[in-house]
Design a protein that fits this description.
Helix content: 25-40%
Number of strands: 9
Largest sheet: 9 strands, antiparallel
Shape: elongated
Structural class: alpha+beta
Low-confidence stretches: none
Mean pLDDT: 85
Distance between the termini: 20 Å
């Protein structure tokens, strides 16, 4: 599976996006689900932080919001459900997901700058890059990463084989990655009863896979 991670600046005419202006005192944290319905409306489940009373007032005043609820998790954090009519640009993005046979990796996280960090996943690079070419111009995007899909970027060891994980564990425990370095390839090879060139080759592959998956 292939993926592309982009930073998205949502259009300001989005009825839900009116929650997150500088005057609203509400911050977007993440989107857990976003679905386009058959009638062209969409439903969204997300988490917000800030003045939840003010958030309710904003959503109540929006004509394109057909229904909503906010469940408080504590004084300043709430789960928000919204059913609304999207602007054409947002509706088009949700249509493209279906047309290209790709999916969005959920949840979609929000950055401190108010952008959405969206990972699009598909079977081939052409599928996931094809959707980028058709995103409406009024939605600003910047590509952060294109590469293999990683289910959990925090678990980099998922990229490794069992043998590579074993060698990495011994290398870490031996101090190979300490500064200053406290172990050599030979030390690791002796503990695992492997040839030194075998350990050297595995460590090169381990580092290539992990560094290749990092988002820089």
């Amino acid at each position: 599976m292939k993926s592309v991670t982009v930073l998205v600046s949502p259009p300001t005419n989005h009825p839900v996006d009116h929650l997150f202006t500088s005057e609203s005192r509400v911050q977007r944290e993440r989107i857990f689900n976003l679905t386009l319905l058959e009638d062209g409306t969409f439903v969204l489940l997300g988490r917000i932080r800030g003045d939840l009373t003010h958030a309710r007032e904003i959503l109540s005043a929006e004509q394109d919001v057909l229904g909503f609820s906010i469940s408080e998790q504590d004084a300043n954090v709430g789960l928000v459900f919204v059913h609304a009519r999207p602007p054409p640009s947002i509706r088009r993005i949700l249509e493209l997901r279906r047309e290209h046979g790709v999916f969005f990796d959920l949840p979609i996280e929000a950055t401190e700058e108010g952008q959405l960090k969206l990972t699009i996943v598909g079977e081939t690079n052409s599928e996931i890059t094809g959707i980028l070419d058709e995103i409406p111009a009024e939605i600003e995007i910047s590509v952060e990463r294109i590469g293999p899909y990683i289910e959990d970027p925090k678990s980099m060891t998922d990229l490794l084989t069992d043998r590579q994980r074993e060698i990495l564990e011994v290398a870490l425990a031996s101090g190979y990655y300490d500064v200053p370095r406290r172990a050599t390839h030979r030390d690791i090879a002796e503990q695992l009863e492997l040839a030194v060139p075998t350990v050297s080759e595995h460590l090169q592959k381990i580092e290539a896979r992990i560094f290749g998956a990092l988002e820089l």
